Amino acid sequence: MNSTAERAYIYSKACGIIGKSFVGPRIRRLQDITRLSDLDRLLFPNSYEDLPERELLIRLEKRIIARTTDQISLLLKTQQSIPHFIGLLVRSYEYADVKLLVSALMDKRDLPPSHADLGRFTTVHFDKYPDPKALFTGTDFEWLIDNIPDNQSANMQIQAELDRRYYTQLWNELCNISDPNIRFIKEIIADEIELKNILWALRLNYYYHFDKTSIEPLLLDLYDRKRSLVKAALECIDNPVDQYSAWASFKYISLLNPEEAGTFWRINIPHIQRKAALLLYKKTRAYFHRSPFSLNTTACFIRLKQFEEELLISLAEGISLGLSGRDVLSMLEVLQ
Question: Which residue stretches of the chain are H helix?
Fold first, then answer.
């Protein structure tokens, strides 16, 4: 298959999978779900499981992740050559799993946490738990062998370092690709890094009372040409968390929980996180069809499937707490 035919096939395949996914208008099909068993049957009509609701939640979350990684792998199987940055997008799962693995090692748990099966993209030897050397030798995580934390503060430093290494590597790969069509996914990743910095800075400041001096080394100090991807995060640290007017010049003021007359305003970080995820989703969905016969299609496809995964897991967790599908989707503001 020549490169043009291959790219056309990949685009067609990606559109077919996205067309059957719960993104865009198909999200509305989830609003009538009220039980986990109904969600299980909708997602896995040929292999749903007859389990108690609490047990089903844990199982369902794992199956939703596997469903996503399987569909991503299905698309990538059709590509003769996979650039390193595409592999890194897939390996975001591995980085997330390593964070859980490090916490398990710190706590000296008997059993390892579950992990996503990434097939050929898996590098960590998860079956070697709890031996750090056997787990990480020959991988990007080899530096962890002698750096397993022994307290939560040290663990936070490790988590931040994992993010820094992942996004620095991903960003450098994107910056070194000459294909002009990459500008779409590059813009999405730049926004993702900037928003991740903002949310991390707000959490450290609001929940853990870190000051700017302590927060700055934990952020991703990267640039998109002349645009600093850390500047907005550092600036927002100084804003009072109980004065909406003080945030007037904040770059992402549209993500803040609104000020309501007659009520005491205080910044709502989960609200900002939901809005940030929605912003990235909408941009990715819009960019998915830009330059269709390029790597942009594959990259946006991966991010859209990951958004769907997060949505379905949030839905499952909400239903397990007694909320309806409509309640969860309304809270996430994905029905608009």
Answer: 3-19, 36-43, 53-76, 84-90, 92-106, 132-136, 152-175, 183-206, 212-215, 231-236, 269-287, 295-320, 325-332
